[in-house]
Amino acid sequence: MKDTARAVVTVIGKDTVGILAKVSGACAASNANVIEVTQSVLEEFFCMIMIIDIKEANKQLDELQAAIQAEVPEMQVHVMHENIFNSMHRI
Amino acid sequence: MLNMSDIMETITMIQEENLDIRTITMGISLIDCADSDIDKSCEKVYNKITTRAKDLVATGEFLEKKYGIPIVNKRISVTPISMLVGVSGGDPVKYAKVLDKAAHEVGVNFIGGFSALVQKGFSAGDRELIEAIPRALAETELVCSSVNVGSTKAGINMDAVKLMGEKVRLAAELTADKQCIGAAKLVVFCNAVEDNPFMAGAFHGVSEADTVLSVGVSGPGVVRSVLSKMPAEASMTEIAEVIKKTAFKITRVGQLIGTEAANMLGVQFGIIDLSLAPTPAIGDSVAHILEEVGLEQCGAHGTTAALAMLNDAVKKGGVMASSSVGGLSGAFIPVSEDAGMIAAARDGVLSIEKLEAMTAVCSVGLDMIVIPGDTPSEVIAAIIADEAAIGMVNSKTTAVRAIPAIGLAEGEELNFGGLLGYGPVMPVRTKSPAKMINRGGRIPAPLQSLKN
Q1: Using a CB-CB distance cutoff of 8 angstroms, which residues of chain B are in contact with residue A62?
Q2: How far is B112 from B81, CA to CA, in rounded Å?
């Protein structure tokens, strides 16, 4: 598999003001470029998936996850390399 | 492009359904460490292991962070030590101690390969190694041992079976103050595979490359969760289909981690072992999958059929997902490591006889079974012989990892802690098989035609 330099950020939890701003702020501070954002709010439930370019990022993925989590402590945050999703769902 | 539901499915599998990589296991050949001086031989063994595996744990931890998936164990398997003992002579426990020291040095959870392959007979080093097993397991912490006593091509070495009955008992006796843990690190095989990454039975076969990296995936929780969403009207055909699809996804993750770890370590990628390996954690049980299929409790009539379907579907799904499948590859049924099996054994629904039938259709055998502390060694040997016969006749791997709970009787429980879990003492038949066991010799290899 081609080793791309992209990661998937997911943020799930109760909807509040400024989640996207805080998460993308943390990405910017880590020098990770946001490529795509998909977001939905069902009743109070917020779910966002963000694809980021980590070629120039100044942090490892677990550190980036911790940085984002610190910005939105109430939410469930995961940062994982894109390849795990590609392997599982693409032949 | 990735879509939202695919991404959420993966995250749910890892976060809520206990999907993990059970082990990355580095197989290291020690053939080039053999020396006629045992101390020199031990020094070479130590140097080779600590050089080849020095980055194994760090690589595993790096990949855990990169992909957000736990890699529970990092392990090493080595060439059967009996071969080195054959060259060097001396006390085999020295090798066990050096393996233990090397394993601690590189930070792995277990090191396997204190082993001998004696299905057809004993060669130099084999008997000495087997005699030393109980002491080696009592005096080390991380060393695992296995002995292959039978195969479809060679038959069953009944002298070895008798010997192993005694050694299993002695291994438990020597570690009676530590929950008889010695016996939990000792597996007796028939048709042992050379590329198994799972402990306690892992060793690095002589036909393997010098250093390889193999992966064992896991995911009973994922399979169970998928089945729980199937309606009661779903046919067994549909159940098998959905298990196949799930096994495919689980295996793909293993393939990704395995190839990447092998690349990072600069070694050849070995195999993925497709086994569904349970843990005592809630929601990580193979028994619960069988119950989800539609049995009131694991051990009920129908368990063998459900397990056969599960085992086959997991293989079919996994085979296409990986470039190289091997090892034991099937559903594991270790009693003390599976919450559903523990419950069924406690309730008396799951008996050793039923487990024996189950081992005819799945990997691997009578695994992590706690038996009464006063079980004579001939009875243990006879349990081994029965299980080996199932493997020999059906051309499959079978094994026995039974733990005589010294000082405990039926109804009491033995708790190992951690991944090895806990389990009730299960009753065994008390009529004596001693006369047959004491005959020794060999059960001839079975005919490969007229299969009925």
Answers
A1: 65
A2: 10
CATH architecture entry for A6-89: 2-Layer Sandwich (3.30)
> Distances in Å between the alpha carbon of A77 and those of A62, A81, B65, B142?
11, 14, 14, 36
Residues of A in contact with B6 (CB under 8 A): 85, 88-89
Task: At B336, give phi and psi (nearest 5°).
Answer: -75, -10
- Decide: helix, strand or coil at residue B152: coil
**What's this model's pTM, rounded to 2 decimal places?**
0.91
A88 contact residues in B (CB cutoff 8 A): 6, 9-10, 249, 252-253
Q: What topology does CATH give the domain B215-443?
A: Anaerobic Ribonucleotide-triphosphate Reductase Large Chain (3.20.70)
Measured CA to CA, the distance from residue B63 to residue B69 in angstroms comes to: 8
CATH 3.20.70.20 occupies which residues in chain B? 25-190, 215-443
Contact (CB, 8 A) for B196 and B202: yes
Say how many CB pairs under 8 Å bridge A and B: 62
* In contact, B249 and B225? CB cutoff 8 Å: no
Q: Which CATH number applies to B25-190?
A: 3.20.70.20
* Distance from C-alpha of B22 to C-alpha of B219, rounded to nearest angstrom: 9
Token pair of B185, please? Answer: 């690190």
Residue of chain B minimizing CA distance to A77 = B11
- At residue B305's C-alpha, the angle toward residues B303 and B308, to 5°, is 105
Q: To the nearest whole angstrom, how far is the Cα of B254 from the nearest Cα of chain A?
A: 10
Question: Which of B7, B65, B255 is opposite residue A10, by nearest beta carbon?
Answer: B7
For residue A79, the SS3 value is strand
Contact flag A84-B256 (C-beta cutoff 8 Å): yes
| Per-residue pLDDT tens listing for chain B (452 residues) | 678 888 888 888 888 888 889 999 999 999 999 999 999 999 999 999 999 999 999 999 999 999 999 999 999 999 999 999 999 999 999 999 999 999 999 999 999 999 999 999 999 999 999 999 999 999 999 999 999 999 999 999 999 999 999 999 999 999 999 999 999 999 999 999 999 999 989 999 999 999 999 999 888 889 999 999 999 999 999 999 999 999 999 999 999 999 999 999 999 999 998 888 888 887 889 999 999 999 999 999 999 999 999 999 999 999 988 888 888 888 889 999 999 999 999 999 999 999 999 999 987 889 999 999 999 999 999 999 999 999 999 999 999 999 999 999 888 999 998 878 999 999 999 999 999 999 999 999 999 888 77
Whether the ipTM is more than 0.90: the answer is no
